[in-house]
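Appendix B. Chain record.
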Amino acid sequence: MNSLDDPAYRLELARGYLAKAENDARDGQWDDCLANAQEAVENAGKAILSHFRPIPKTHDVINPLKDLLEQASVPGTVQQKVGEALDIFRDMGLETHIRATYGNEATRTPPWELIQEPEATAGLEKARQAVALAEAIYSEMAGGASRDA
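Structure tokens predicted for this chain:
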């Protein structure tokens, strides 16, 4: 795939959601921080995936990222980076999206009562790492794309 349009757009989304999560953390808005961190992680994962395959319609990107580790068309350096970073994407999918957006519907607990600082800051750290990984892979693939184009 030679087009960098999809990865660039997803990386822009990931960076934007990370910036929102950082602001939410400064303001102590822990539910919003986690919701935006989850979106940053999801879009960072999709930025990586979009270099090699269509973007899946899912909040959980860990399994599609695991699949990249088995594809011969994915450069070894990318496989290594993704393989070492898979834990960043663990527990940052649909379940986290629902909790941070809707709370716990069974107990009627809204997200602003459910999400506390430790969970939000852990998600924020994952978002920082996911965006940094997506940026590194984008740089690597952009260098390869310019040679192949």
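Further analysis of this model is presented in Appendix C.
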